[in-house]
Amino acid sequence: MHFCNLNYILKIAVSVNGPITGDGADGERKRMSFPLCGHIPRLTYYRHVVRREQFFQYESIQTEWLVFAVEDGSFYYEIEHRSATASFGDLVFCPPGVAFRRVVISPVTLFVLRMNWADDLGNELDPQRLDGLPVGKVSLRDTDKLTDDYAAMKRHNFLDERWSMIRRNHHLHHIWLQICEQTEQLPSAEPPRSSDPLIEKATQLIREQAFERFSLQMIAGSLGVSRMQLCHKFQTELGTTPIKYATALRLEKAKKLLVETNLTLDQISECCGYQNGFYLSRVFKNNCGTTPKMYRLEHRL
């Protein structure tokens, strides 16, 4: 592990576009027969941590599902073979019985949530049906809704604990439904849908890996085509290239983090899949016509 050098951090943006049994180049996917929205979270523990400069524990193993929902700041984590940096808009899911290692990068404000899962009738779900749940980082695109839910969860601090948990569970469920709905949506940077199943799959894989340092060669290989064939079909079907599409997704997230957080440019670059702030600044200027610094100054209220 290389906690002192963030250039070693492997960016794994965990997809919520279906069940995941692994990340990265050797990741395998398996479609679940039970829909994602049929998993209903039941909150058992809640804590709001404000501007924590370090975690009390570097590593923990829980008996329930654990979620760190970041409101501000950032931290690095490792869950099994997954590792990434989480910041505002990210929720990090860790299943029970699995080691969750974490280190604060910049003073972090987050919600610590423990939960189990039930079906729509309130029956506890068979653990085998939980294989399709996300493990690691989930990045929500609609941060306005997320901010509203976070604010509402904090407003219940002065209620009786029983009623507070009921209301917080309501907001947690709303956040979870946003995650489920996001699997059916395309980001605003998404080009029109293609009728070609291969291009549909390619755009899905790029969305899933956009915030990692992914390999287009490996994506093409997983689809059974060459890199050149994929780029040609992508351009023909959608009028853009896979790299330009991934860049649009990354810059969309960078803009949100510039406006809605106090993260440094290097920290934002880590969250968006770039090597460093210098490289992000160059890409940002070339595509947006302004620097990240100016964009932050002009768009903050």
Automatic annotation (TrEMBL):
UniProt keywords, alphabetically: DNA-binding, Transcription, Transcription regulation
Residues covered by the HTH araC/xylS-type domain: 200-298
Sample GO molecular function, one term: sequence-specific DNA binding
Highest taxon above the source species: Bacteria
Protein name: AraC family transcriptional regulator
Organism: Paenibacillus ginsengarvi
One Pfam family it belongs to: HTH_18
